Amino acid sequence: MRTIFSGIKPTGHLTLGNYLGALGRFVDLQHEALCVFSIVDLHAMTVEHSPDRLRELTREAATLYLAAGLDPDVCVVVRQSAVGALHAELTYLMECTAYVGELQRMIQYKEKGRGRPKTRASLLTYPALMAADILLYGTTHVPVGDDQKQHVELTRDLAVRFNRTYGEVFVVPEMMDAAVAARVMDLQEPTKKMMKSTSDDSLGQIRLLDPPDVVRRKMRRAVTDSDGVVRVDRDGKPGLTNLLEILAAATGEESVETVAARYASYGQLKRDTADAVVAVLEPLQKSYADLAKDPAAVDAILAAGADRARDLGTPYLAAAKEAMGVG
Ligand code: ATP
Ligand code: MG
After folding, report:
1. Burial call 105-134: b when 16+ CB within 10 Å, e when fewer
2. What Gene3D superfamilies would the database entry show (predicted)?
3. How many CB atoms lie within 10 A of CB 82?
4. Parallel, antiparallel, or unpaired: how do β-strands 76-79 and 141-143 relate?
């Protein structure tokens, strides 16, 4: 049986990138496998953070998971820190499996931390926590965006190394690529990935809770190019190609080229892309507004999710400790 694990860090308001690369796919996958979808709040502390904001963003993300259509009777929705003891303990075993050199080679560490005086130690060891998150549940498949590929590969290396050294304990997981829009780009700087932690309310980033008029305005102002030809070209026409990918992903089209062939003008493409995104976000926002009225109900769902996650993870942690000679 397939087991799927994935998570999103509550480091900012969730974006369209998080939806197309992760959350929207979780909703489709929940019926296909045993799924654990986590709000990975421990990961949100690897950079400077405010405790109150972290709590708020965690609640917002959990509510968005449910609003997007994750059904807590079908999949496990869990706040990582609610089962933090398991994740942290397995992280330590992963830190005893990983090498400093391989952690230092991670792009995220190089970009956000290396050489800076106040880089938190946890930013370097972050991939060990991520490996623990995945391996704790016997995960076979990890649906993540393109940017997480390197971390999933490291997780595989650690699982293989652990199993070879101490005996077969962990399942070696596979990454599941998104068909389209595996990397949604910033609308203003289309050579950079859209990310939730960049700046507060930038024009380049569509948030899942942006009202329709804001989505339309941001799409209208999206940076493209001046040659006027609609064609898929990631390097030469990154802004335009990003719009095509967003439109394809939001409407469930498999081929970006087919979408491109239907357009002769940038204006029409921008309008249709905005409409498609609004059509995805409107029902989600309606459902979010309802759920947000009853935070106690969301808490109860998270508490039940933590119980299920603990049951699933405990045997893997126990087996790993036993194999390593502790516990
Ligand atoms: P941060 O700025 O804190 O790193 P983020 O937007 O990159 O935030 P993460 O929490 O790092 O979000 O990643 C959550 C999931 O969303 C991962 O599966 C990641 O691959 C996916 N994801 C993030 N950004 C994008 C994007 N622009 N396009 C597609 N998938 C994305
Ligand atoms: Mg990220």
Report:
1. ebebbeebbeeeeeebebbbbbbbbbbbbb
2. HUPs, Tyrosyl-Transfer RNA Synthetase
3. 19
4. unpaired
7 forms bridges with which residues in the sheet?
A: 38
Q: Whose CA is nearest to atom 7 of ligand 1?
A: 195
Ligand nearest to the CA of 149: 1
Catalytic residues: 112, 193, 196
Does the pLDDT of residue 224 top 90, yes or no?
A: yes
Question: How many residues are given for the chain?
Answer: 327
Residue 66 DSSP label: H
Question: In whole angstroms, how large is the CA radius of gyration of the chain?
Answer: 20
pLDDT for the residue numbered 80: 98
Cβ-contact 272, 256 below 8 angstroms: no
**Closest atom of ligand 1 to CA, residue 196:** 6
What pLDDT score does 30 carry? Answer: 98
> Per-residue pLDDT tens for 244-303?
999 999 999 989 999 999 999 999 999 999 999 999 999 999 999 999 999 999 999 999
Neighbours of 60 (CB within 10 A): 20
Tokens, residue 11 = 């480091």
What ipTM is given for this predicted complex? 0.99
Give tens-digit pLDDT for 157-191: 999 999 999 999 999 999 998 777 789 999 999 99
Q: What is the pTM of this model?
A: 0.96
Can you state the angle between helices 121-135 and 149-166, rounded to 10 degrees? 70
Q: Is the distance from CB of 115 to CB of 74 less than 8 angstroms?
A: no
Question: Does residue 311 have a pLDDT over 70?
Answer: yes
pLDDT score of 200: 67
- Specify whether the CB–CB gap between 43 and 7 falls below 8 A: yes
Rounded to 10 degrees, what is the CA torsion of 30, 24, 37, 33?
20
Residues with beta carbon inside 6 Å of ligand 1? Answer: 8-9, 11, 15, 17-18, 20-22, 144-145, 147-148, 182-184, 193-197
What distance, in Å, lies between the first and last C-alpha atoms of the chain?
29
> Helices 266-292 and 238-251, interaxial angle, to 10°?
50
| Tokens found for residue 127 | 């991939």
